[in-house]
Write the C-alpha cells for this entry.
Amino acid sequence: MASIRIYGGNPLHGDVTVSGSKNATLPLLAASLLVEGRTIFENVPRIDDINAMIDMLRALGAKCEFIEKSVLSIDATQINSVSAPYDLVRKMRGSFYVAGALLGRFGEAEVPLPGGCVIGTRPVDYHLDGFRRLGAVVEERHGVMRAQAEKLIGTRVYLDSRYRSVGTTVNLMLAAALADGVTVIENASREPEVVCCEEFLTQAGADIGGLGTDVVVIKGVKRLTGTRFTSIGDRMEAGTFLMACGCARGDVRVHGVSPQHMRAVLDVLQGAGIRIETGPDWIRIISDSRCQAFEVTTEPYPGFPTDLQPNASALAALAVGTSVVEERIFDARFNYIDELIRMGADIQVKDSVAIIRGVPRLYGAPVEATDIRAGSALVLAGLAGEGYTEINGAEFLSRGYQDLEKKLQGIGAVVTRSRAAEDDRMRNVWHR
C-alpha cells in the first residue's frame, strides 16, 4: 500500500494547472465505442481510473494509443466483444458507461455491476429502467447485467429530480444516439461533464438538443464518425487546490478550469471571507487568515458538488465558528470524519449532517484514505496541520489526481509518496 507524507504548516504560493476532467473523460472514452473511425481526445488525465477504462476498451477490441502525454487516439471500428471483463469493471463505477454504448451500437451488452469508491448506495436501477424504456430486454443475474434489443426505439424517460443522475443521463444518451426515433430525458443531469459528452457526441454527428438543460432531446442518427475533441479541465481538482490554499493559507492561481463551472464553490469560499479573483480559465485564491464558518449542502449541478464535500469539511475544521455540511447525494460520504478528528478536528455527525466547530489548528497524525475524495480531504488537513501527516491508501488518490504530489510541491508543499517497504522504517524516524 502506498502512502503520502506531508510536513504541514507551509503556506502555498504560485501557479498550478489542473489536468483534464476525470468525470468528463470517462464518458468520452465510453462514447468513442459508438464511433466508426478514429477519435482523438485531448486533455486526457493520466490517472489510474482512465488507465482502467482504456484497458476496458482494449479488452473489447478497440485500438487505444497515447500519441502525446495527454492526447489519446481511439479506433473502435473493430470492436469484437460486447462482454466487459469483471476484473476491469469492478475497479470503478465509471466503467458501466460502456453498457449504454455497447447496447446502442450493437443491440446487446453484458456488463458486470460496477465497483469503485465505497461511498454509499449507488444502484444502477435507473440505468436499467432506462434501457428497458428504450425497448431492451434487461436481466440482472449473479452480479451481471445483460441487455439485448433487436432495435432500440426512442422514448421519454423521467429521472428523479432530486438526484438528476449523471450516470443514467450519460448511459441513456449513449444508448439513444443511434436508436430509431426521438428520446427525451427529463430531469437530465446538467453537470459540465455531461455537457462535455453531449458536445462530443454532437461533434461526432449525433443530433442532440437541450445541451446544458434538464431536458435533453436525442434524435437517433445512422452513424457517428471520428473527430478530434478536447475535454474540459477538472473542476474537482481545481476545488481541491483552492481549498488547500484556504486551509494552509497563501496565494495560488489555479489554471485550466472554467470559473463558471466552479460558481457554487466560489460562492462558498467568498462567503467565508476568502478573496477570489477570476479570469477566462483561471481562479486566484488569497487566504491570509482563518476563514469564517459556512454552510454547505451538496446538490446536483449547479449546486455544490458532492465530490468536494470532504474538502469543504477539512476547510470548515479550521474556520472561525461552527459550520454545517449536509450531504444529500450519497449516504456514506462522511467516512473520513474520524480521521479528521484524529488530527484534532471537532466534528459531530448525525445522519447526513456534519456539525463542524472550527479549531485554531490541526495536528499531523497517521491516517487512512478510504476513497478518492476522502483522501484529498486528509491531504488538505495535512497541509494545514502541525508536524507530519502520513496518509495510507494513497492509491485512491492516484485514481483521481494526476501528479498530485508534484503539483503540490510546485506551490510550496512539503509532500512525498512512499511505498509500503519504506513505511515502517520511516514511521519510526518521524514519530520519535
